[in-house]
Design brief:
This protein has 447 residues and is an alpha/beta fold. It folds into three domains: 88 residues, NAD(P)-binding Rossmann-like Domain (Rossmann fold), CATH 3.40.50; 209 residues, UDP-N-acetylmuramoyl-L-alanine:D-glutamate ligase (3-Layer(aba) Sandwich); 132 residues, Alpha-Beta Complex (Protein-Tyrosine Phosphatase, Chain A), CATH 3.90.190. A nine-stranded mixed β-sheet has the order 7-8-6-9-10-11-12-13-14, covered by helices on one side. The chain has a six-stranded mixed β-sheet with strand order 15-16-20-17-18-19. A five-stranded parallel β-sheet has the order 3-2-1-4-5, with helices on both faces. Strand 10, helix 10 and strand 11 form a beta-alpha-beta unit. Helix 6 packs across helix 11. The mean pLDDT is 93. Its main location: cytoplasm. It catalyses: UDP-N-acetyl-alpha-D-muramoyl-L-alanine + D-glutamate + ATP = UDP-N-acetyl-alpha-D-muramoyl-L-alanyl-D-glutamate + ADP + phosphate + H(+). Keywords: ATP-binding, Cell cycle, Cell division, Cell shape, Cell wall biogenesis/degradation, Cytoplasm, Ligase, Nucleotide-binding, Peptidoglycan synthesis.
């Protein structure tokens, strides 16, 4: 009998990880990418003797698959994906495939529109500090599938996107976290927020009464939708608005972590990462650590020693009394709102890029209160000018990081902060948000 054929669409990190794991599990594997495959990923395929093509799709071969893993970046309305579905071929996401081979390992899975990367990294730091045999996978670092194939661990801390949650059938985290839900990626969900919400709540779809669900009850979208889904797991809410019998809450600048009759307290002054949104991230991560049995003193130690991530509110330099902050990972309006909300000094804001249907009005109040100048960095800045033109008198257009940084420095005075928090995707001028952040940092160094 022939081996089962697994076809993988898209040769990014999740595609390559799945290919390696599928090959290890005895599948015949074929990787097909419509674009060019990066050299490092091509080396992986050659090294593992995996058949691949790039630049086009061999439709007949793809449609002869028993199972298809499609990259999270490929939308369902893609013509080839529709043909695959019409033929009744099983379509899985990378996290679904990896889940089937993880053995007895436990999973903490974290999703949300904002804060998920910080929360995932902090949860991993808590588990690591607490002595767990764990790996940080998903949207950060290695794919879950590659980790399962090459270096299995007892615990996986996974950052998952809504796209990855779209194609799951059995994937079940022991601990699921939804940080918040705001409008993002709506172009992938027929511009219907309810489709996006359903995707996020997929994270709890397969949970049982032994599992834990951590969510932010101060987030109106989560709160409104809790009753619409059949949630069987133990609920562990987080909040800043009231005391809870069980969960994490903040009162008088003290975090309380209440779980199974125990109550740990810690002052938010001791958190290594600052800002209100990071207090939510810290509560969610602490709750996740608690749920997998990390000791209280280790959680306390981890919250004090965590270093924030590159491109996420990253302090770059102080030049002539002007602080430069790289928040290039802010690719939507809500992320920029959080960034502005933490600012204590007058701000020169670098904004703009590829707009995913942004509504900037949510930023107006904070911009009026904190921003003295806006430097636009994108090819089409019309909407930014229309929204803020009447409240910010200093506004200028630039088309690269160097000009943006120089213009911002020109507007700034001692005691100000130059904040790169674009609220947009980066593809008009940069490869990705990392490239945008790197170019910003280089431009600051060149001042």
């Amino acid at each position: 009998m022939l081996e089962k054929l697994m076809v993988i669409l898209g040769a990014g990190e999740s595609g390559i990880g799945t290919a390696i794991l599928a090959k290890q599990q005895g599948f015949e594997v074929f990787v097909s990418d419509g674009g060019a495959i990066k050299p490092n990923y091509k080396n992986d395929l050659v090294q593992h003797q995996i058949d691949f093509e790039e630049g086009s799709h061999n439709e007949a071969k793809v449609l002869s698959a028993n199972i298809v893993m499609k990259s999270p970046g490929i939308p369902d309305k893609n013509a080839l994906v529709q043909k695959i579905r019409q033929q009744g071929i099983e379509v899985v996401s990378e996290i679904e495939f990896a889940f089937r081979y993880k053995g007895d390992s436990k999973i903490i899975a974290i999703t949300g529109s904002n804060g998920k990367t910080t929360t995932t990294a902090l949860t991993y730091h808590i588990c690591k500090t607490g002595g767990a045999d764990c790996a940080l996978v998903g949207n950060i670092g290695y794919s879950f599938a590659r980790q399962v194939a090459e270096a299995p661990k007892a615990l996986y801390v996974i950052e998952v996107s809504s796209f990855q949650l779209d194609d799951i059938s059995t994937f079940k985290p022991d601990v699921a976290v939804i940080t918040n839900i705001t409008e993002d990626h709506l172009d992938r969900y027929e511009y219907n927020i309810n489709n996006y919400i359903k995707s996020k709540f997929n994270i709890v779809a397969n949970q049982t009464a032994d599992d834990v669900f951590i969510y932010n009850i101060d987030d109106p979208t989560i709160q409104h939708n809790l009753t619409k889904f059949n949630i069987r797991s133990i609920k562990a809410p987080i909040t800043m608005s009231k005391e809870l019998p069980e969960g994490a809450y903040l009162t008088n600048a003290q975090m309380h972590l209440k779980w199974k009759g125990e109550d740990m307290q810690m002052s938010v002054e001791d958190f290594a990462i600052k800002g209100k949104h990071n207090q939510y991230n810290s509560m969610a991560a602490s709750m996740a650590g608690t749920a997998v049995g990390i000791r209280k003193e280790k959680i306390r130690e981890a919250l004090q020693t965590f270093e924030s991530l590159e491109h996420r509110m990253e302090s770059v330099a102080v030049i002539k009394g002007v602080e430069f902050v790289n928040d290039s990972k802010a690719t939507n309006v809500n992320s920029t709102w959080y960034a502005l909300e933490t600012m204590q000094k007058p701000v020169i804001l670098i904004l703009g890029g590829v707009d995913k249907g942004n509504d900037y009005t949510a930023l107006k109040e904070l911009v009026q209160e904190k921003v003295k100048a806006i430097v636009c960095m994108g090819l089409d800045n019309r909407k930014i000018h229309e929204t803020f033109g009447d409240i910010v008198s200093l506004m200028v257009n630039t088309e690269n990081a160097k000009d943006a940084v120089q213009a911002a420095f020109h507007f700034a005075e001692k005691g100000d902060v130059v904040l790169l928090s674009p609220a947009c995707a980066s593809f008009d001028l940069f490869k990705n948000y990392e490239d945008r952040g790197q170019q910003f940092k280089q431009a600051v160094k060149d001042l």
